[in-house]
Amino acid sequence: MGRIRVLSDQVANQIAAGEVVDRPASVVKELLENSVDAGAARIRIEVEAGGRKLIRVSDNGHGMSRDDALLAFERHATSKLRSADDLLAIATLGFRGEALPSIASVARVTLETASDDNTATPGTRIEIAGGKILHVDDAALPRGTTISVADLFFNTPARRKFLRAESTELAHVTALVTHYALVHPEKHFELISASHTIVAAPPVARTAERIYQIFGKDTLSQLLPVAAETPLARAGLPEPPPWKKDPDNPPPQPGTLRLSGFYSKPELQKLNRNSIYIFVNKRLIRDRLLLHAISEAYRNVIPPTSFPVVLLFLEMPPEEVDVNVHPAKTEVRFRQQTLVHDFVRDSLRNALIKARPAAAFLAALESSPAASPSLMPPATSPLPGAPQSAQAATDPAAPPATISDAGSFRLTPQTLPPVAASLPFANEPLATSSLNQLAAVLLDPETAAASSAAATAEDTARIEAEQAAANLNHLAGLKALGQLRESFILATGESGLWIIDQHVAHERVLFEKILRDRQVERAQRQRLLMPMLVELKPSQMVVFARIAAELVRNGFEVEPFGPQTLAVKAAPVGLEGSALERMLSEVIEQSGAESDEPLQSQDLSSLRTRIAASIACHSAIKVNTPLDPARMDWLLQELAKTEHPTSCPHGRPIALLYSWKDIQRAFQRI
Ligand code: ADP
Ligand code: MG
Fold it and tell me: What distance in angstroms lies between residue 33's CA and the mean position of ligand 1's atoms?
């Protein structure tokens, strides 16, 4: 007797389910993707008990015939792929034909579907439990598909144990629905949990309006748009052999890489990456490479320990990206990795440099990283299979955290009827038009949806215009009035009242100058009258030896003076005495943790910025320093010339604006 057996389909499906379905949110993901692939314009998601008891996804997509509906539950049955060649250019979200059989093997599933092409039978209802078909019936149904998944993992208790608190699972589902709603503003999304509406997003024209619908005014007003494109090179694509080359039919051009989306002003900082959403060809993915590119774009603009909010939509020809990397389809592989990485980094960085966003005083007060939760509850990874380190630690110990966090992500308030979300903000007096809207809501839900969509568009446009106006291009035209406690410069202009931190402003000016000078090997150095002796521990000496060459390029002249002592003979202009000493020990300290390997280009560039930031910090004008008017004006002019007048190299804000609008509002003049 041999030992090897072929597994039954049921077991194979359960094994596949282990990869594809690990929690309610991953079921929602698969069902949502199927609805999107079916061309649905309206998708409704209902969950009970965080999806543990019930998940129901209804769509008005093209539906299935009876035969297809039965086939859909077969393993590797898909309508989206025919041959292995198709794998190279996948235009749908699904393609593996695994989701439905996997889900059906670990839950009680009801499928109701009807399509246009089969008018003889009105529709089909199929009931399956634990992979076994229980009933197949004809049913009179409207076009579209509804799949209900009840009692997830009822037959796999080991998996059921891994489920978290209902509120956590609901938060994951919410995060997921939110993502798909963002990438498809033209579709109508609803998420309902135990008869509470959590997401209500009727179709809108633009992503900005969708952001406003889902996250509200405050989030939208802290985001800026970005759009860019670059032609893709042919590099690496197989050329047809010469005898197959057809002069009339040249091989297709590799096409274009397009980026669009939103990124946060530097004042908005998050403690983790949960507010970075990346979509490639409308597919939500996690990608280290792109996360790195985003961090690089914000380097020396926000602190290295904080993260921005970014919604990134990348579009590229399907041949450029391999989506068949992971069963949950959340990882991809780019054909031209470096190109994609650098393009994302540079597009974001250029957008930041161009926008020069000004931080509004009140927003800045609220947006220190500690004070602002991520758009999604912390520890929410909307993607199945993504690392969840924080999850295990926080979840059982502190269930209330999840609840309060779930309340703080700015979704439509649960207590309001869905349509109220798109009405003007509660704290503004109701204008006649919104009263009319309200009346319309009560009288006729259909027209109400339309008119509130118009209100969304209007509000979105207004917020965008206000944002565009609040930029630091105004800096150059400001008039300095004086100092606040010899530490902050007060200045006015058309835009409003500005408060500028003199130390960090000067720090930013110096930082960019030092990097520029360094680039052309022209660091500004000054000889010290007396060499300064610095004592170092042996371990510090090792670090010093590693970075000595870079220090020399920044204007230092240092010689050994005994086994543990250095003699500094020259230093960057503006650095002397104790500041010089502090700067040196700071850089040595910060560079200490690195390995003894020779410096790679990546480390070298971060060492460069670290040295520049440290020199800038220690030679910049201090707080509690009186400045005469000419010096203040000089500083404002110089700041205006920098690339990132928004924040200092360590990520602190430089200039805060009390906008003329806010001032008028506060004095109740408008
Ligand atoms: P895949 O999406 O990878 O093809 P699934 O197991 O998710 O595999 O679905 C199997 C097939 O069932 C799909 O290829 C599609 O033809 C059909 N299907 C699933 N969900 C829907 C839906 N909501 N509307 C129409 N067809 C659907
Ligand atoms: Mg699918």
Answer: 9
